[in-house]
Design goal:
The longest helix has 18 residues. The protein has about 100 residues and is α+β, with helices and mostly antiparallel strands. Helices cover about 15% and strands about 55% of the residues. It has one domain. The two termini are about 40 Å apart.
Length: about 100
């Protein structure tokens, strides 16, 4: 009888704790690209109040001189996430960026 009681308490605790867990689920995948010209390409992602976004891919091509720079960023700006594809001085460089967003 004592073993059954302990099992019931353990099962009840697991069920109770799982009801308070916040589910996180995949929401979307986004890309931003910039080719051959200096500047920033931005893409507005979902709201940061109920989403979490992170950088998932960076592809850089043709940064073959000392002053060519390329980068990708995911930043919180105001109420949304922003994906940035950035090229510094560029003659022929390319940058491709991607981000995943999840509901939380």
């Amino acid at each position: 009888m004592k073993k059954i009681y302990v099992k019931l308490v353990a099962i009840s605790a697991v069920v109770l704790m799982s009801s308070f867990a916040n589910a996180v689920s995949f929401d979307s995948w986004h890309t931003a690209e910039r080719f051959n010209t200096a500047g920033i390409t931005t893409k507005i992602l979902p709201p940061n109040s109920n989403h979490f976004c992170y950088l998932s891919r960076v592809e850089v091509e043709e940064t073959d001189t000392g002053n060519e720079e390329a980068s990708c960023n995911v930043v919180r700006q105001g109420t949304v996430w922003i994906l940035e594809a950035r090229l510094g001085r560029s003659s022929d460089a390319d940058v491709k960026c991607a981000a995943y967003c999840f509901n939380n």
